[in-house]
Design goal:
Distance between the termini: 87 Å
Strand content: 25-35%
Strand order of the largest sheet: 1-2-3-5-4
Radius of gyration: 23 Å
Shape: elongated
Order of helices and strands: HHEEEEE
Structural class: alpha+beta
CATH architecture of one domain: Beta Barrel
Largest sheet: 5 strands, mixed, barrel
CATH superfamily of one domain: Copper binding periplasmic protein CusF
CATH class of one domain: Mainly Beta
Bound molecules: copper (II) ion
Number of helices: 2
Amino acid sequence: MPNEHNWVRPLICLTILSIFMTMGCARQLQPQKVETPAQPAPTVDQAIAAPSPITNKPYPGVGIVKLINHKEGWIEINHEPIPDLMPAMEMEWSVQKRSLLDHVSVGDKVNFTIVDTGKAQIITELKRMNEQKK
Ligand SMILES: [Cu+2]
C-alpha cells in the first residue's frame, strides 16, 4: 500500500461533497410553497428577525383573513409584523376554540392573539376590526 497516495481519497470525498452541495443549492432555488421554514442552521441575522417565542405569552397581531377552515380549525392570515415574534407574512394558525372562526370571514381585517404553547402557536383570540364605528 503506497502511503504517498493517501491524500487522493479525501480529495475525491471533498469533490463528491461539493457536487452534492451544489445540487442542494440548485434545489433550493426551485419555487417553494410559502411558509416552509426548512432551512437548517439559521444565520445570526435570521435568528434576530425571528426570535424564539416565549411560551404562554400572548402576542397581539393584526392582519387580513385569507382562508378559514372550520372543519380542521385553522385560519390563514396575511399578518403585519408581530413585535418580538415574526415579520409580516401570510400563514396559518390553529385556533384554540373553533367558535373563534364563527365571527370572521375571508377578507376581514382582524385583531388576534397568538400564544405559543410550547408545542405550537395557536390563536386564542380573534376579532374582526370594527370599521363601521369611529
Ligand atoms: Cu407569521
